[in-house]
Amino acid sequence: SLSAGLDLPGRFLFATLTLMTLIAILVFIEEAVYIYRKIPSSKRAIIIWINAAAPVISTTSCIGMWVPRSTMFTDFTAGIFFAIVIHKFLMMMIKECGGQKVLLRHFENGRFTISTGPCCCCCPCLTRVPITRQTLFWLKLGTFQFAVLRPVLIFLSIVLWTNGNYVLYNLSPKGPALWISCFIGALTLFALWAVGIMFRKVRILLKSKNIIPKFALYQFIVILNQLQTTVINIFATQKIIPCAPPLSSTARGSYIAQQLLIMEMFLITVISRVVYRRKYHDLEPPECSSEEPVDKKQTP
After folding, report:
1. Which topology term describes how it sits in the membrane (predicted)?
2. What pLDDT sits at residue 265?
3. E strand or H helix at 11, and its extent?
4. What was the pLDDT predicted at 116?
5. Pairing relation of β-strands 111-112 and 129-130?
6. Of the four listed, 1, 38, 56, 77, which is most buried by Cβ atoms within 10 Å?
7. For residues 64 and 70, is the Cβ–Cβ distance under 8 A?
8. Is the pLDDT of residue 26 over 50?
């Protein structure tokens, strides 16, 4: 066990990070109770799922910090949960607009701008797509495929790992790790692209519902959980992060990534409590009442 060989500062750091994880869990539980009591049932489950992303990642990172051999399982657990949260965030934006029917009525003659990140931000010449039931289906499919296929690929990775064929840090073209990672990366980009397209269209409509800070928190989770961890693992694989016995370079890189994630997810959990709670139940009635007359006026 790594904790057995820690000096006093190391034990203090472990204790502090563990305490931050426990506080994040308690904050989430308190927020989940508030959401269950105050938020309409149609949105309740989705918002709880999204709020659970940061404390779940913090918990898996804390377990991986105390039990280094479980890192692969904890990372895969966090990855599966995160894939589901991306789909839930897209569905939350649709729910916040009043549902799919209300969204289609509000943007009856509108168009989606598909030249947005992370896939097509450098292609402003792309045509704008009309907002129809079919385009909404493709956007939802873009995130749903990630929520389904990523757990399947992670399960395949675990099966290959138990058989000795999958080595996480072996990026050789002959090994399955490189191809599975590239495929998961492509699925991730398509899912984030679908969320970006939807957010760009509804951000003005949902500004009163704090959608911009909510999207910012979601983006921070994406960057910290995916990009930051990937960069640290690449540095560790290339020996840029030196080894420190008894930790190898790759183990030390994973160790650093887990500690950073615990602190970052703790802050996001606390901020999410403020953003998702602030006058949330007071924003729904005015918007509904303001949309109904518009629909009546448009009816011939």
Report:
1. Multi-pass membrane protein
2. 92
3. helix 8-38
4. 75
5. antiparallel
6. 56
7. yes
8. yes
Domain membership of residue 136 (yes or no) is: yes
Please check the confidence at residue 172 and state whether its pLDDT lies above 90.
no
- The Cα 172–Cα 131 span in angstroms is 43
Q: Is residue 267 part of a domain?
A: yes
Calculate Rg over the CA atoms of the chain: 21
Q: Rounded to the nearest 10 degrees, what angle do helices 176-202 and 133-162 cross at?
A: 150
297 in a structural domain: no
Please name the residues in contact with 145: beta carbons below 8 A apart, sequence gap of 6 or more.
187, 190, 191
Query: Containing domain of residue 210, as a range?
Result: 2-279
Residue 121 to residue 89: CA distance in whole angstroms = 21
pLDDT at 79 over 90: no
Which tens digit of pLDDT belongs to each residue from 106-142?
887 787 877 776 666 666 666 778 888 888 899 899 8
pLDDT at site 68: 77
Within a domain: 232: yes
For 138-171, what is each residue's pLDDT tens digit?
989 989 998 899 889 888 888 888 877 777 666 6
Residue recorded with tokens 């969204």? 103
Q: What is the CATH number of the domain that holds 160?
A: 1.20.1070
Phi, psi values for residue 34, rounded to 5°: -65, -45
C-alpha torsion sign, points 167, 172, 174, 180: positive
Cα 117 to Cα 138: distance, rounded to the nearest angstrom: 17
Task: State the pLDDT at residue 65.
Answer: 84
Coil, helix or strand for 114? Answer: coil
Q: Please state the domain count of the chain.
A: 1
4-21 per-residue burial string, b: 16 or more CB within 10 A, e: under 16: eeeeeeeeeebeebeebb
